Amino acid sequence: MAARAVRHERADATRGAILAAAERLFAERGVYAVSNRQVSEAAGQGNNAAVGYHFGTKADLVRAIARQHAEQVERLRLRLLAEIGDSTDVRDWVAALVRPVLEHLAELPSPTWYARFCAQVMTDPALHEIMADESLASPALRRTVEGFNRCLPELPIEVHIERGAMARNLILHMCAERERALAENTTTPRSSWHDAATGLIDGIVGLWLAPVTR
Amino acid sequence: MAARAVRHERADATRGAILAAAERLFAERGVYAVSNRQVSEAAGQGNNAAVGYHFGTKADLVRAIARQHAEQVERLRLRLLAEIGDSTDVRDWVAALVRPVLEHLAELPSPTWYARFCAQVMTDPALHEIMADESLASPALRRTVEGFNRCLPELPIEVHIERGAMARNLILHMCAERERALAENTTTPRSSWHDAATGLIDGIVGLWLAPVTR
DNA sequence: CCACACTTAAGTCAAGCGACTGATTTAAAT
DNA sequence: ATTTAAATCAGTCGCTTGACTTAAGTGTGG
Prior knowledge:
Two copies of one chain form a homodimer.
Chain A: H1 2-29, H2 36-42, H3 50-54, H4 58-84, H5 90-107, H6 114-123, H7 128-136, H8 139-150, H9 157-184, H10 193-209
Helix pairs in contact in A: 1-4, 1-6, 4-5, 4-7, 4-8, 5-8, 5-10, 6-7, 6-9, 9-10
The structure holds a DNA duplex (30 and 30 nucleotides).
């Protein structure tokens, strides 16, 4: 058993290098603008088919990148859920939605590429489903949404769905935009991911509590 | 003068066919997943270089598509600006931001592809600038933002910028999401673009008026 | 100690790409 | 009627792509 482990270490190192290189190149140049060959090369692999060997298709590689980060976000969200318990404050639940994502980005070595990567994948018609699957697979996320629904003001169901989508889009694309600004060294409204999260939470809570035109 | 016009009619017809085909293919399969050859073919052109002849690079084609729609949105926004005059109601100005875009989508023959196209272009690192340029070139948009700033509650500058970005992202990606749902024939929270605009305006106003955590 | 499975390297292949070329069609201008 | 130039067509070019094959290296389990 430990026998296999050692051999797998080398393969895992290569897999990791490929994942890191792919995430970076995808975020910087676009998922479809980067070929598997370029990823292999950037990961220091002589074999132009290294991506194919370790992951399969580009879609599989995208899924692997998404999953890797999703696991970390999941861990952070579970911890936060334990803290807020069964709070009835809407803000707490919005925070449970927002904070883990931005905390994860804060923990990553900078510069980060994950947010831009996610935004691209979610926007691409062929890859969209991959990212959606990976997100919905999170038990912590489901628990958050449930807890959130419990303490939310009465809203028509269609408005509820609509605003959920708004919150989702805001988190995703505001993170991507901030990450892009950091990478380009342009000014950002907030000086840290933590502050950016606070601003996001303010906005999303306001969005949820807004009166509904009938 | 009318001499040239007629000859140009044929070219314009071809240009139009290419624009329409490109917009559709880009939205459905992704901008980078579609080659210029495929666009030419889908536009009924025997020449595999038709895109190159009429537009140049793919980026130029993307810009042409964006500009075409931006002009129509501009017209709708100018009309709405005339209606609201110098209102001091925040909601009027948010409507001036939102309504023209969704009205434009409502006026297009369905199914539409423009919103998904825009979302992709804005999210792609290489194309992002194109779309940003085309948007910022709009005088009506600038006037809207100015009128908006005039009647907005006092906010720290960084929060102001931040919430502007949130509103922008919401409009773009909620439209794209609704368009995708319509294309896939899945359920949408709202039954019309007009109602969707109302929901969006509700949310964005709430977002702007939300209290700021200090 | 050796045979083996796993990983990496190196190179091949057909297909598709953008860019380019020269010929042909079309209709306005002379 | 002839000329001219825009527009379209048909085909070629070098290059990159993903997929595939073959060979070499490496530590494990028998």
